[in-house]
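In response to the reviewer comment on reproducibility (Comment 2.3), we provide here a single inverse folding case reported in full, input and output, so that an independent group could reproduce the run without further information from us. The structure tokens appear first.
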């Protein structure tokens, strides 16, 4: 723990710039500053201590080497779930890849990682277990690492609690981590051996936030959920949430709406199910980040596993602008919107016996419309032949 700015500068010089100054009690990317020289270290110490005190009621700070462009196989690259009981037994439950982040806070997680080989996975797992045993830890916890492009890994921190993204570990191991925590707290020994811990399939989690992704990748949005429907009809989907239609999204709490998890026999299947789940998630009344999540999981770099904690600023250097429609997608949307509009008008006319739009004759078969899509207005001609429409 740093005593003052002078000590921060001294240690920074010893370990070499750049360095990361961070709140000891911090989390979610708060109270963190990168420093590239002595002046930035002093400034970072001042700002980080102020933010730490206001956010966590604890102004104590740490300093560590800053690893540029890492993976967070948990808060800036790799995480291992550790179960340690009061009988001296410990397990590592494979890794979670958490590199997709905005403002140092995770957005998309998956298990396992596309990057790790069995040897690196085992080495990280053994290090995590050694740490848990050294501090005599008993419960579920997470040891976080940064991993560079050469698969060198660096200890980041240990979270002595259940992480937000624990469901992806449950999916690929078949363990109920909440149940295991309760059993350990009650004094029961672990029921599993390390050799019993599998990697079955692939799981992906998207954090659905009430925030506007077009503003700094997500500024919080508040309001009432006027419409809310989770995509639970999609196969192998799990939604962990605490809200429902009519709930208020408050400024006083984290803007997370839910954790959306999909599972598949392989990564491609899990991604396809996540794509379908996001497309079928209905949220109205507040801004949300589903459009950003949808773009991330289908981006070629993400699909190939070419990711790091800099993924979002590298892929969207000017900020997220949304999906750019292809000509085919634009034509399909215009045709669908125009056809639905005409069909609705005809149903209203039949039900009421009077048209809601002016008609020249009793049986109209063609329409000239102007459809507003994005920033443009497009002329669309619709003709009806029996029960079908041509656009």
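Designed residues, in position order:
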């Amino acid at each position: 723990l740093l005593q003052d700015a002078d000590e921060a500068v001294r240690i920074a010089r010893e370990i070499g710039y750049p360095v990361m100054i961070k709140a000891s009690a911090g989390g979610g990317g708060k109270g963190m500053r990168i420093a590239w020289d002595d002046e930035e270290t002093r400034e970072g110490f001042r700002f980080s201590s102020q933010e730490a005190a206001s956010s966590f009621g604890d102004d104590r700070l740490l300093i560590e080497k800053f690893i540029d462009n890492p993976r967070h196989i948990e808060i800036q690259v790799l995480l291992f779930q550790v179960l340690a009981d009061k009988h001296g037994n410990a397990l590592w439950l494979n890794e979670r890849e958490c590199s997709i982040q905005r403002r140092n806070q995770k957005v998309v997680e998956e298990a396992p990682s596309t990057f790790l080989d069995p040897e690196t996975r085992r080495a990280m797992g053994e290090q995590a277990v050694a740490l848990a045993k050294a501090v005599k830890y008993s419960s579920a916890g997470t040891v976080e690492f940064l991993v560079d492009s050469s698969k060198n890994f660096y200890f980041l921190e240990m979270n002595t609690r259940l992480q937000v993204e624990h469901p992806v570990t449950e999916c690929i191991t078949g363990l109920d981590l909440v149940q295991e925590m309760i059993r350990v707290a009650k004094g029961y020994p672990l029921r599993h051996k390390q050799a019993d811990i599998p990697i079955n399939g692939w799981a992906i989690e998207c954090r659905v936030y009430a925030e506007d992704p077009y503003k700094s990748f997500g500024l919080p949005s508040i309001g009432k959920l006027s419409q809310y429907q989770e995509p639970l009809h999609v196969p192998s989907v799990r939604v962990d949430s605490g809200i429902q239609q009519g709930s208020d999204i408050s400024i006083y709490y984290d803007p997370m709406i839910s954790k959306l998890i999909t599972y598949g026999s392989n990564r491609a299947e899990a991604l396809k199910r996540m794509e379908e789940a996001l497309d079928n998630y209905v949220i109205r009344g507040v801004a949300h980040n589903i459009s950003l999540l949808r773009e991330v999981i289908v981006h070629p770099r993400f699909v190939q596993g070419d990711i790091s904690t800099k993924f979002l600023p590298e892929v969207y250097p000017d900020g997220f602008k949304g999906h750019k429609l292809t000509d085919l997608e634009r034509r399909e949307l215009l045709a669908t919107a125009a056809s639905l509009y005409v069909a609705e008008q005809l149903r209203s006319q039949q039900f009421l016996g009077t048209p809601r739009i002016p008609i020249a004759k009793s049986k109209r078969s063609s329409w000239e419309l102007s459809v507003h899509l994005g920033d443009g207005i497009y002329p669309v001609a619709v003709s009806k032949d029996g029960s079908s429409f041509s656009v």
